[in-house]
Amino acid sequence: METKEKIAKYYDGYDEDERLVSKHGMVEYLTTMKYIETYLRPNVRILEIGAATGRYSHALAQRGYRVDAVELLEHNIELFQKNTVAGEPVTITQGNALDLSAFESNTYEITLLLGPMYHLFTMEDQLKALSEAIRVTKKGGILFAAYCMGDASVLSHGFVRGEIDSILEDCGLNPETFDAFPHPWGIFKLNRKEDIDRLRSNFDVTPLHLVASDGYANHMRSTVDQMDDRMYALYLKYHFATCERQDMMGYSHHILDIFQKN
């Protein structure tokens, strides 16, 4: 099965919007938006690569920012269009993060790459996606790249859900170091912090923030989802206070790498 077909099959049966509106899922969304808002300025142009159903693109467009979105999957594009409110300054184009030739260089003040790096398994493809995102961003512009983390998945999917033996049998993990092997027949590319640092080091960019965007929330979903408003606000306060701590990175299922184009 081709990579696009595997990804399409996965997302056809997965409600991404629902994930981001649950209390535990909102931690990732609110964290990502909090950091995007830090760099919003009047009249900025935003490109979202791998926009899925448009959760971020629509939120930003509805605030009046001009947003261009690129999405690979037809199913997601249909939902993106369905979710579009009349008058939103947003466009959606079918495309691939590895080839943004439809977009001019040095165009956007903010570029979001919040999904494609999850599904790119080779160093060549990862570098190509980052290179294209950087190319279309203006000098001094800010880029946001999201990654899936390996150790959080080993703990939650492997040990908590009891799948560790099958993962090892499928050669998904190094049985000594528990590094995740980058198998192109999988769905998600799992990383460690040093992998993200290594990728970024290939480009003329300045790192700004490395953020544990969901922190520990996915490990305690039911607890977070059952919090009342006061406790949830307190939990978010704790999360925002700790989400850039380097000793917290490995426990997060998702990491947000924020950097500036030089």
Which descriptors apply to this entry?
single chain; 262 residues; alpha/beta; 20% strand
Description:
With 262 residues, the protein is of the alpha/beta class. 40% of the residues lie in helices and 20% in strands. It has eleven helices and eight strands. It has helices at 3-12, 16-21, 23-38, 55-61, 74-82, 123-135, 150-160, 164-169, 193-200, 221-225, 229-242; strands at 45-49, 66-71, 90-94, 108-113, 137-149, 190-191, 205-212, 254-261. Strands 1, 2, 3, 4, 5, 6, 7 and 8 form an eight-stranded mixed beta sheet that branches. Helix 4 links the parallel strand 1 (45-49) and strand 2. The longest helix is centred in the N-terminal third of the chain and has 16 residues, at 23-38. The relative contact order is 0.15.
Question: What is this structure, in a nutshell?
Answer:
With 262 residues, the chain is of the alpha/beta class. Helix content is 40%, strand content 20%.
Topology:
Elements: H1 3-12, H2 16-21, H3 23-38, E1 45-49, H4 55-61, E2 66-71, H5 74-82, E3 90-94, E4 108-113, H6 123-135, E5 137-149, H7 150-160, H8 164-169, E6 190-191, H9 193-200, E7 205-212, H10 221-225, H11 229-242, E8 254-261
Parallel strand pairs: 1-2, 1-4, 2-3, 4-5, 5-6
Antiparallel strand pairs: 5-8, 7-8
Low-confidence stretches: none
The average pLDDT is 90
Provide the gyration radius in Å. Answer: 18 Å
What string, H for helix and E for strand, traces the elements in order? HHHEHEHEEHEHHEHEHHE
Report how far the terminal alpha carbons are from each other. 39 Å
Number of extended strands? 8
How big a fraction of the residues is strand?
Answer: 15-25%
* Helicity, as a percent range: 40-55%
Structural class: alpha/beta
Shape: globular
**What kind of sheet is the major sheet?**
8 strands, mixed
The tally of helices reads: 11
